[in-house]
Amino acid sequence: MISQVEAAPRRAVRYWFEDGLVEIGAGILFLALAGLFALEGLAPANSPGAALSALGLPLVILGGMLLVGLAVRAAKERLTYPRTGYVAYPAAGPARRILAGVIGAGVSLAIVWLLAARPSLQLALGALQGVALAIVFMALSLRTGLARLAMVGFVALGGGLVATTLALGASLGSALAFGAAGVAAVLSGALALSRYLRTTALPTEGA
Amino acid sequence: MAGDDLRTLTEVDRVIHEPARLLIVALLSAVREADFVFLQHQTGLTKGNLSAHLSRLEQAGYLRIDKGFRGKIPQTVCSLTPAGRAAFKAYRAQMRRAVGGARH
User: Fold this and answer.
1) What sections of chain A are H helices per DSSP?
2) Where are the beta strands (DSSP E) in chain B?
């Protein structure tokens, strides 16, 4: 009984990922980023494409996160909550948000410093991003007990390593790392959603 | 010392100790709030059984129940009160001590 009690909170957290919608949303965001990095890598310097990729990155990251968040919530309202119920999770406290910001800023600064100090490391940027994505998905997998999230992490890592092996450069390397993660996340999420919809039913009227 | 830990089992919070209610409280401890459908799906209890356990937890002051609508559909949303969270935390600590003591 003790192990069931300890497992119950984890089940509640895992529930957010069970329908696959979060993965699909994250995958779409990663694919958008991959497209932007690819444009940056392929477009000639000073071309409209290069300008678009430079301007688009913050828009895709911030705007994309907002839009994906709204879309995932709307999809859950329509598909998930009527079938298996509604859950709201506690918002991160100020200390946790500050810590996340500090860690994010620290990692970004470290990468910028490394790339400035060793320009040749730009060739390994795809691998570094693949590692970062793999760590995030592995952590999610451990937290939720969903093995498929670890698979997405492995694919992201693989994409980054391939990009570095092929010496694609910073932009195309990033495109491959995020593209691989995006495709894996969308496919994984779509399979999970398909299974979820097949195994759960909308409540009948009056039930 | 191990005997003392085991003896505290007689003083366990019986509102939480009941298996169905324990599962409900454990699930709600990880979230801000959850509705009746979620709890029924996760616990496997019948509607009547779940309603009875939720009422018992609400009577004990451990649970807050809000009845409203999600669009046009009635919805019952549950959340642990601060007292409920404290009671669950104390219960877990008590059980860990008792189980740990029983191993020696």
Assistant:
1) 2-18, 21-42, 48-58, 64-75, 81-84, 94-117, 125-144, 147-165, 170-199
2) 33-35, 63-70, 73-80
> pTM, whole model, 2 decimals?
0.82
* Residues in B touching A90 (Cβ below 8 Å): 31-32
Q: What is the ipTM of this complex?
A: 0.85
Q: CA–CA separation, B64 vs B58, rounded Å?
A: 6
List C-alpha distances in Å: B26 to A39, A112, B17, B99: 48, 44, 11, 18
A4 vs B contacts (CB less than 8 Å): 23, 26
Tens of pLDDT along A89-139?
988 778 877 887 787 777 777 777 777 787 777 777 778 888 888 888 999
Residue among A113, A99, A83 at smallest CA distance from A197:
A83
Binding-site residues on chain B for chain A (CB distance < 8 A): 19, 22-23, 26-42, 70, 73, 75, 77, 92, 95-96, 99
B84, B57 contact by CB (below 8 A):
yes
Q: How many residues in chain A?
A: 207
Which H or E run contains B97?
A: helix B82-102
Q: How many residues does chain B have?
A: 104
Environment class of A44 (CB within 10 Å of its CB; exposed 0-12, middle 13-18, buried 19+): exposed
Give the amino acid at A7: A
**How distant is the Cα of A207 from the closest Cα of chain B, in angstroms?**
10
